[in-house]
Design a protein that fits this description.
By secondary structure, the protein is an alpha+beta fold. The chain folds into two domains: 56 residues, no CATH class; 41 residues. Helix content is 55%, strand content 20%. The chain has a two-stranded antiparallel ribbon. The longest helix has 23 residues. It is extended and about 50 Å long. The chain starts with a helix and ends in a 6-residue tail after the last helix. The relative contact order is 0.10.
């Protein structure tokens, strides 16, 4: 029940965002992908997902642009969490921590 309450509340927030998009007349300029999923384990290897999602995408080119953006920014975050960016910066300055 807690999951359902969360998803209902999330849906209300998405409706508010939708109103905000119209208030600022951004609908024709907006690219948006929203996906939130709650995993529910079925067994040790399998889960099911309850999801809330919405898209503001007109064509395949816009979809590809958004997917590329997600991949690139996810990779950047992964690199940052591993400290790769910091190491690259130090190496570019000739500094080694080894």
């Amino acid at each position: 029940m807690k999951d359902d309450d969360f998803l209902i509340k999330l849906q209300q927030k998405l409706f508010e965002i939708d109103l905000l998009i119209d208030e600022y007349e951004m609908r024709d300029r907006l690219l948006s992908i929203f996906v939130t999923g709650i995993l529910e384990p079925i067994d040790d290897n399998t889960s099911t997902m309850k999801a809330m999602y919405g898209y503001s995408i007109e064509n395949r080119e816009e979809l590809d642009t958004m997917i590329d953006f997600i991949k690139d920014t996810w990779k950047e975050q992964e690199d940052i969490s591993r400290g790769d960016d910091f190491e690259d910066l130090l190496n570019s300055m000739g500094i080694s921590l080894n």
